[in-house]
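Tokens for Protein odr-4 homolog. Go.
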Amino acid sequence: MRTVLLSKADEVYLEKCAQENQFSYGIIVGHQADLSKSVVVHLARNNEEDADLEDLTDVRLTIGDINAQALASQWLSASKMCPGSFDVIGIFVSSSSPDVSNEKSDDFKNAKKLFSDIYDLLLKSNSSFGVYTTDIAQTDFVFLAYSLVDKKVLCKNYSYGNGGTFSNMDHRFVDKPFEWIQLESTYDLDDVLPILDASRRVNIEDQFQNIIKAVRRNLLASEVFLQNEIVEDTIDLQAYIKKKRTKADKLNKPSSTGGGGSVSAGSTASGSLPELASDTGIISDSIRASIVLPVKCQLSKPSDIKVREFQGTLRMSGIIASKVFCSPRNSIADVKRFLRDDVLRSLITRIQVYCDGLTDPYVNNEALYVSEPPRRVFFNLPTETPSTGATVQFSEYLFRGEAPTVAVAQAKQILDVELDPETISVEAEGLPDDSNFTNGANAGVDRTDDSRTLLSSMPKPELSRSLYMLGIAVALLILLSSVVLHYVLGDR
């Protein structure tokens, strides 16, 4: 039977939601520790303004009153902020009514329809859901209901298909803090793809989809190195760390010399997380991972190589910063999959955010179009229960000129957490050089025809405000000049 592990802080949060609003609902962000256990990472109450639920203090509200669209929207937004090792695994309901935790009640019967509606909305509204991920689409979810009256918790496993079914699921509140191990990686994008669309106006979004497919194909064929070495997929992360610690201890063990002295190599491993020895030194905060791609010609069969004509080229260049947080019980195969998923999820997210702001998705195929998608920033997930090991981080995406306060607002709305803008890490991905953004892609292009160069149509907040203020100043100047001329000419 599948088991869901929650912390004591989760129980406090469920109680708080029921006390403050009498009826609350939201999403569950979780992590798959192994085949039978899921760890709840975060519970996030839905803060959408829902016309159907204007008065959340009304205890008469039931599961049937929940707007599936509001939950699906939060689900999608939270998925974009999660690292690749976490997913939205279900929904929770917290109420002062005992009916929500009674599976024989009429209220509980509406939960199955709610899940079915949400899943259908996810499939329709997001083309990346279960399509471009490196793993199979998720079909099993968690339904968690909490009743404030009797402090009862009902936990069920929902399986999509054949109208949807509920099955029994065990749940436990754990006193001991969860342990997280952080893995970091940077994925370099530097590739050129052909544009095969022969139409005069090319759809930018379609070309971005081609980028996603190409990166996904490369990631599936890639190899992931941990601390610059290949690690067997079948062992778990805990065994790998133990092996590295043993190796580090051997390096650090004093060796006697003829004169009775001793020589110590490296540093002493200590702390809650073992310090990992590598060829370049000792790393204690995280494990460094590298995603290595094979030679391109090895990805294709000889019969797949063809000579074709194309209308243009699409170049992608940049760095994707990746951070995932794993359980010691995760296998190395899971760890590698999480890293690949995180890179692909980050790429898909920033492309979606960028395309959502386009006023016109089409561009003339004779033009040179330069785009700057948003960069990734990280923030710690606040928690009342301290965890051992690494501090869990989520991410958000900011365009050039946007302040960290944008991420603060998103975290409050989507994850129901309060953040300090000063604590948001914006250094993981640097901004591209201005000269490269405006002129770097013009290499080999006739500079006498500037009309062929089109910059991204995404709004630049700082520039827009400056032009707005300049326009007001010019208008005031014209108005004052008109008044002066009126009085001067009137006197004559």
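The domain at 3-175 is CATH 3.40.140.10 (Cytidine Deaminase; domain 2).
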